[in-house]
Fold this protein.
Amino acid sequence: MTTMQARSPDRAEQLATLRAILERHGRQPAKLIPILQAVQDEYRYLPEEVLSYVATALGLPPAHVYGVATFYAYFALEPKGKYVVRLCDGTACHVKNSLPILDALRDHLQVDEEHKTTADMQFTVETVACLGACGLAPVVMINGQVHSRMTPEAAVQLIEEIRKSEPAEA
Amino acid sequence: MVAKDVLTEAEPKIPHVAGRRIIVCAGTGCKANGSEAVYEAFLESIAAAGAQVAVEFKSEGGDGEVSVTRSGCQGVCSQAPLVTILPDTVLYMRVQPSDVEEIVAKTLVAGQVVERLLYHLPDTGAACRGAKDIPFLNRQTHVVLREVGYLDPENLQEYLRLGGYEAARKAFLQMTPEGICIEVAQSGLRGRGGGGFPTGRKWEAARQRPNVKKYVICNADEGDPGAFMNCSVMEGNPHSVIEGLLIAARAIGADEAYVYIRAEYPLAVKRMKQAVADAEAAGFLGDNVFGSGLRVHCELKEGAGAFVCGEETAMIASVEGQRGMPRPKPPFPAYSGLWGKPTVINNVETLAQVTRIIRDGPAVFRQVGTPTAPGTKTFSITGHVANTGLIEVPLGTTLGEVVYGIGGGVTDDAGRLSKDGFKAVQIGGPSGGCLTPDHVNLPLDYDALRGVGAMVGSGGLVVMNQQTCIVSIARFFLDFTQRESCGKCVLCREGTRQMLALLDDIIAGRADATTLPLLESLAHAVQKGSLCGLGKTAPNPVLSTLRHFRPEYEAHIVQKRCPAGRCKALRKITINETKCIGCGACLHKCPVNAISGEKKKPHRINLVACIKCGACAEACKFAAVEGV
């Protein structure tokens, strides 16, 4: 995970990071997707002004960049929380009752389908088609870490454990 | 069948560099269950027991060392984390860091087994010492998975000791491109990604193109929810995939290769990246492959979460940095693909099979499977089944063998074996169809499955028990394809949306006599009016469940009843008058005041006001609320 804060990083620093990403990919328009992935890994989302900057740098119409950014589920145009909770709703997890877990997580964190991120920018709850751990269904992935054989109670407890491990100011 | 021989032969092939070898499974499933901590505990525990262990090993004639390695998926994901000890061939399951000390003391030092960590047969309770004794493992035929679970996937040297890259070396130094295409064609290998198109024919078409620039792409965008075979192969034996990709490049004359891999598989991405880097450093990839003077460069492309990118032309668009939308075929990618150049796209498993075909020859490959579908196929078996995990069987193996013989039978919601619990199996994910207990003798191969309206697909098998609502499952798949539709074709974009609305009507009790005919005609229209495989196959789950479970649809529509009791809107919650003592607990809990009744007299639920939340059932201490 990036250590950089999602909101208002220093402007010059932001540009330097962005340029480094573009250079790493040789400013090739064909590398648009890896570039956007790298940008998102850095900022946790794709800020609008960054999309325009990337478009100009690659000599692509902004509409093209925006079109690609909105096509793929991986890209987010809104900031995500510090912890991204991805509930697997693949077939194996679904038949093993993954949806009550989603309901419990959303209830607990006061988020829904439209508003996936908590007001304090700590948690984002989203579903994912399959995490490839079907033998241990249902599973939840929190920032890349897979947690297996989940129940609604266990999932809520995981969230609480993370909350407790956070410094008080959060 | 040669199943048992192949498996028993597989184990000793792994060289024991050290006296003993402890293999901790580091597949996604086992890692999620803490196998990394188990690995660390072994390292610590062995260091601590150092002198004693070393003495023991010397007396066994080894070189006095014990090695601890991590491997890819060992298959029995339901029992994670797994630990295999060679050469004892002991397989321990559900191993926790706290068990490690005992394993070191008993198994490594004293040569005994830790009984409680062995697999126990669910029916007789008998302990199984190793893979050879466990039905889930010994009824399989491992070819692609032979080394997965034994091999250290991050160690190229180990792969080389097993004859790794010999096939690619042979392809580059001794075989002509034409000769490779002929061998692959002779093997009868068909694409393992779903369609089942003959691989040899695809390669031959691309080979014959006069272009100087050609591409090969490994399709590692395993998007089917409920399938993780390719993930496991890449995590467990990444070099076998890279080697197959090299052979494909040689066969068609390509000098650039891509691996298009799902970003949702971080571990597979990491291991494939490492494998590419190691192969480059060893001179197997680069400007002078095996000293042949030919160049092949390989690059990893991470997907960005679009199911449709598993489709060849959409994948090409995505590699080019565009929105991943399919285009009409022909021209097929073998003629005009990536940047308009001839391109061959093969699935992960297809490429891993190619490595074996070139190494061992097509005749060995054809020893198992059926004449029209030779070889083995990996499946992931999940859902309501006793043994979930990764399996590999010859094509043509019956459904019954997979579900009962290997899977160990169907379980109920609580995880207990249930004799008559088998309701259906979804095969091929959201593009596939369902099979029923009537199909237990059906051979699983491309043509037999197509005959009953299903498909092999990528090989995801999801077993469902009697408590599963078939209409909800069809809705689940359609909801998935509807969301993943790229929006190019009207019938796929709008048609799937309307089909979903019709299914919602059925589930919510709003459907009438016109719903099913409309649903069916719309399904056929979507099949006919869509450009790519996603749209063409999106209605399959609906059509195949309608074919096998029509009465269940009708029960929802006519009787407004969900036979599995899953559809919330169709529940009829009642209070059993003989059980209700009139305590009023439910009455107070009901958020919509739908319950009425005097104290100490049976209460009643007003079904019109009831929102079926189930709060009353939770509040009742006498189990008087029924139908929740």
The first helix of chain B runs from residue 3 to 10. The CA atoms of residues 576 and 624 of chain B lie 5 Å apart. Chain B has five domains: 3-138, 156-365, 395-468, 471-557, 571-628.
